[in-house]
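Q: My labmate handed me this sequence with no annotations at all. I'd like to see what the chain might look like in three dimensions before we decide whether it's worth expressing. Could you predict it?
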Amino acid sequence: MPYLPEFVTYCACCGKSPRYDKSMANTTARIPENLGLPLPRLCLAITGHRESNAAFASNREAVANVLAMLFDAADAVTQKHGSSAANTRLFSLLAHGADLIAVDQALARGWEITAPLPFGLELNIAINADPATPEAFEALLDGRATDDPELSKRATHIRNVAARATLFELAEADVAMAQAYRTMLSTRTDPQSMRRFADLASGRVAAAGRIMIEQSDALVAIWDGIAPGGIGGTRHTIATAVEAGTPVVWIDASRPGRVALLRTPEDLFVLEGAAQIDSTAAMEAFIRSLFNPPEADQNERAIDFHTEQWHPASSRRFHAYRRVEALFGGETVREKFADLRQYYALPEKVAVNSNGNLLLAARELPGGDSKFADTINAQIVQRFAWADGLSTYLSDAYRGGMTTNFILSALAIIAGVTYLPLASVDAKWPFAMTEFIILAIIVMITAIGRRKKWHGRWFETRRVAEYFRHAPIMLLLGVARPSGRWPRGADTEWPEFYAREVLRELGLPSVKIDHAYLHAILDTLLRQHASGQRIYHEAKAKRLARVHRGLDHLSEVMFSLAILSVATYLTLLFIASAGLISSD
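A: Here is what I predict for the chain of 584 residues:
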């Protein structure tokens, strides 16, 4: 049995919604009260030079003042919304230098801190504290005191900050990293060992930086504008951000009064031409552009989504599309004429009725965050069930109505011309009346569909559902869509804003990712999920291929009958003109 509930594994928008026991239905259901509208949240990330950078070290205090001005602007914008906004969150790799300056300021403001670490916590502390000897490194790695007061102070600072942050530790390569660092310290004059450690560490830092960028609205970068840096360095992190569509607030470490906005990769090569945001008003305007909720009508549509009427089962009057699919795609007579009524699971019963396989697997991940798994169930799985059930019902309504209209259109033509072989022109009016009634029904169905916005509501709720379909696995792996890569709808953007804020609320789990964690994700979650998706879509593709062939065959038969009908008429006309039969 797949680890995910059936409604997650199979794609209802493609024509098959899952069957559920009628006991799961409730005609008066509403979205669970614990699932309120998501609150907008400002998420910033920080990257910058370490203390060893000369420009940063000489302007440390000035850089801190500019950061304070930027953070003041963020507070000024978010606090205007009061309780209707979530607490600001800062992402940092907790590197000693610019990162910790920003984190200290954020903690003083009561912001949340989330740290995607390139190594496990202990190794991260031991490396970032910058020990000079293998003995000091081993002491830090074991959590013991060292003989160097400054070294101990740096390590304690990082440890204290980490204790107040949510940690997402990328620790699967810690053994190799620790050994490479030991070798480098033991042979500081050996460029090969230094290069080996740098190569290994840069990949880890780049991965952590990518996670940080994906979770943030903007990246704050403290950079001298000169240092090229390698993979994972400050410049590389800036480039990664702008390529992902995440804007970068650049504070020049050489001239801290210079603050500019970088939005595209080209901006890195024309720094002098970058837009300046070196005033409080400009900073507030920029933060406002990141944070402001969508327009009023978008908010109203999100509210409408929460107050939609829940239908416990599909309606037979909307089954025209599904019946066509069943008639032409079913392999047996039983399948062709089976009852098509579907029952939709209530959101709050999803985990219970699916044996809680997703929740159980997430809770049992080695080193996993069980509370985070519970939050996934409450905030993601239940929202998916709500959106999927609504979308499936609305898709039936729209596609069923369209299919009915197509069929009625053909019947209207048939009704209008049927009098020709059966009655005289004087007796045409009953046939014309029948045609008019059918056309009126078509207009009525179309008008109802437009008034109730079946098509728009179907696509909007389907967008919400699909953003949440794969979210549980992605969240457990720290994967997110960068803020600049969310699609923008032509008519409405509330599904994207809604999904982004819900996923943003969860953020990163507090986990230590190692080989056991990754293997558990692959074996018990990702593989089964991908397998279930593949099995469903392969079966669906074969079914739709049969539908296609069946409709093609029907159209060929009807076309042949049309040719036969016209040929028969012309033959009779020729015979009558020859006087062999009566012209009547």
